[in-house]
Write a structure and sequence with these properties.
The termini are far apart. This protein has helices spanning about 15-25, 35-40, 50-60, 75-85. The chain has four helices and no strands. By secondary structure, the chain is mainly alpha-helical. Helix 1 runs parallel beside helix 3.
Length: about 80
Amino acid sequence: MEFNPVIEEFEPAPEVTQIEYIEQLLKSSTIPFELNEYFYQRLKLLTDLEARDLIDYLEKRQVNRIHAGLNFNMTYSKKFLKESI
């Protein structure tokens, strides 16, 4: 009997900083609660590529501090105005 090792493709895990950033984005996102909980539960199972995709998804679904009446600074105001035009 021959030994034939199977080489599986290895997908690297995300960096700790990516996970921390995702956690911060989840706290301020506008996604439904159930989806937010789902992402929190899957944080430890994400691959690097999935983490990058999730960051992109969550960045697009953040609370607009100006429309929400929250505190904001001039840098945020300038960025908001550039994106609005």
